[in-house]
Amino acid sequence: MRNKEKAMGKLVDYILDFLLGFPEKQEKLVGYTADKTHFADYKVVIVPSDFFSEKVFGTATSLPTLPLPELEGVPVLFGQPKVEKIGETLVCYADLVASSFFLLSRYEELLVAERDEHGRFSGKFSLPYRAGFLSRPIVDEYGQLLRSWLRDLGCEVLEPTPDYSRIVLTHDVDFLYNFRHFRGLLGGIKRTVLGQGVDFKTVVKSLFSLENDPAYTFPWLLEQDKRVPKSHTIFFVKAAKKRAKLDYPHYSLISRDAHHFFELSNLYDCEIGLHASYASGVEPALVLQEKERLQSVISQPITSNRHHYLRIFKPEDMDMLLAAGITDDYTLGYADVAGFRLGTCRPVKWINPITKRVTELTLHPLTVMDCTLSNENYMALNYEQALDCVQKLLLQVKRHGGEVVLLWHNTVISDRKAYHKELYAQIINFLAS
């Protein structure tokens, strides 16, 4: 019992520190207790709901019901939207700790059975989407409420600077090239014959020169990325030996083309991360094998990961990332709808939703992915709608001093029928202004 209480204490401390957003000790500022004899020990007290009780936690009754109540315009998942002054202490009956845990740990994904064709938890199944606040980082708004109350009580608590704390421009290398091998050449000729937007001259030129291959858009992407001051570019590279069907096409990490790509990434001081395979979604142990294979090729440590198809499912997947030496993961966004899957736009330590333990794996919330905007099975936005959607998300990140994480594939840039090349350039302009 003591171990459980200790773990719970660490969880509460971490969440309160995360909400307040500053490293100073907050023990005397905010408390999480229903014991009225301790209310006077704090400036603000959050009264726990029954969410963490043994009878409720892990059961269907722990899921919030819609519509959600609001406290000062912010949806509350647990507790009552009520605040009152008791003596010199402000007492909040909305359980902001449990509400934050629910979102930060992706707790609901343990209990909601629906999955899409790739086994993923869809954004449209999520409570934030159904409640209409997926485009708002609600956990960060909880922090705003706490800081505002503390200032009203005379505490010197500052708001985060309204600016991006970090801009991470990421590119998943699903295809290194299109037509650089015999199979690709045959596929290109077939697409030419069928009139699928590929001309024969491009196919032949690609066979003889990597730079002429339509998928090799990395130089253009890197020139765009470097226009954003202090941005950081990460290429997530596939390294699977054992592959599922959707891990194809395969490119050799030791080929001349791959060597050329790695030289280019070094020239622009880019990070190489692991793009864990589709197969690793059902065999998490593959992550370590793939990481070691990529690491041996580039002779650099690999500490960052993103799962192919954003296919990350269970706490066991996170445990395997930790066991493989991955310190930072960039998978946590929804494929089908843009928004804040973790309820925050700031990097957060992974909280195991079963054990409630805070780990050393840092999750970087994915702000938006290119195909989420355009895919007819996802948001199906036109150019103007997509630009408006991205800009609104970026303004939310900026408002809360959060981290921007964009995912743009090299292949969407070469699609003449899509708007992603123009859209990416406009987003870069927005970030660079």
Word description of this protein:
The chain has 433 residues and is of the alpha/beta class. It has two domains: 151 residues, no CATH class; 230 residues, Alpha-Beta Barrel (TIM Barrel), CATH 3.20.20.370. Helix content is 36%, strand content 15%. The chain is built from 15 helices and 15 strands. A nine-stranded mixed sheet has the order 12-13-11-10-9-8-7-15-14. α1 crosses α5 and α13 packs parallel to α15. It starts with a helix and ends with a helix. The model has no long low-confidence stretch (mean pLDDT 92).
Descriptors:
alpha/beta; single chain; 433 residues; TIM Barrel; 9-stranded mixed beta sheet; 2 domains; 15 helices; 4-stranded mixed beta sheet
Layout of helices and strands:
Elements: H1 2-20, E1 30-32, E2 44-46, E3 70-71, E4 74-75, E5 79-86, E6 89-94, H2 96-104, H3 108-111, H4 127-131, H5 138-152, E7 166-173, H6 182-193, H7 200-208, H8 218-225, E8 232-237, H9 256-267, E9 271-276, H10 286-298, E10 304-307, H11 315-323, E11 328-329, E12 348-351, E13 358-363, E14 368-369, H12 370-374, H13 383-399, E15 403-407, H14 410-413, H15 420-432
Parallel strand pairs: 1-2, 2-6, 7-8, 7-15, 8-9, 9-10, 10-11, 11-13, 14-15
Antiparallel strand pairs: 3-4, 5-6, 12-13
